[in-house]
Amino acid sequence: MEISYRLFQWDDIDEIVSIICDTWQLDKMCKDYKQGIIFSKQYLYHVLKDASDIYVAIDHDKVIGLLVLSLYLKNKITIPKKYQQYLLKIDENETKVKDYQKMIIDYKQNCLFLYKNSAIKFANEIVLFAVDRRYQRKGIGTELFKLAGSIFEKEAHSNYYLYTDTSCNYRYYDHLGMKKMGSLKPRKQDDFEIYLYGKN
Question: H or E element: which one contains 160?
């Protein structure tokens, strides 16, 4: 492997959509690969709307990891119209997209509720963090977090937070020195739980 890290380029977007779909196995959740890709595009669109800085991990020109940040003192990026269309375009006969959009919006609202009810307020956010499953446990995620920490340290506000949930390896964030600041069960009857992690 020859891993390097650089700023995101818009030409990376296809590979990033695939990483999102594969990392969280959204094709299995949607019971179809095409549907999983559609969900991944919709999700990435909402992520990019909150982003101010985006970095990728590269192995021989292939994108294998993604770090999306929202810095308190920086403006959000502008998604070019071409890529808005790419992320939001669907087949005319597609009926499940509204369900996907509702799931994404509901998740985000639950996260905001959790944040508003937390004891500590944070300045910066890790909006999305993902590593290709074939490259996990090789230190790439740790390097991406070091990169995030160095960027946050340059800001006037260096504390940061992220959301995760029981569908992810959330204990990884304990290993990175973050602390669980709150939790929320969207529905009491479910095992699914959302967590707010923070680091000062």
Answer: strand 160-165
Contact at 8 Å (CB) between 120 and 65?
Answer: no
Which pLDDT tens digit goes with each residue over 155-193?
767 789 999 999 888 999 999 999 999 999 988 887 899
| Total residue length of the chain | 200
- The SS3 call for residue 129 is strand
Q: How far apart are the C-alpha atoms of 77 and 47, rounded to whole Å?
A: 11
Q: Which residues pair with 12 in a beta bridge?
A: none
Task: Quote the pLDDT of residue 93.
Answer: 53
User: Has this prediction a pTM greater than 0.90?
Assistant: yes
- Of 171, 169, 191, 190, nearest in space to 179 by CA: 171
Q: In the structure encoding, which two tokens stand for residue 167, read together?
A: 């569908």
Q: Where are the alpha helices (DSSP H) in 57-117?
A: 81-88, 97-116
CA distance 47 to 195: 17
Cα 123 from chain centre: 17
What number of helices (H) and strands (E) belong to the chain?
A: 7, 7
pLDDT tens-digit map of 88-103: 887 655 667 778 888 9
Tokens found for residue 90: 């669907």
In sign, the C-alpha dihedral spanning 138, 4, 39, 27 is negative
Q: Which residues have a Cβ under 8 Å from the Cβ of 31 and sit 6 or more positions away?
A: none
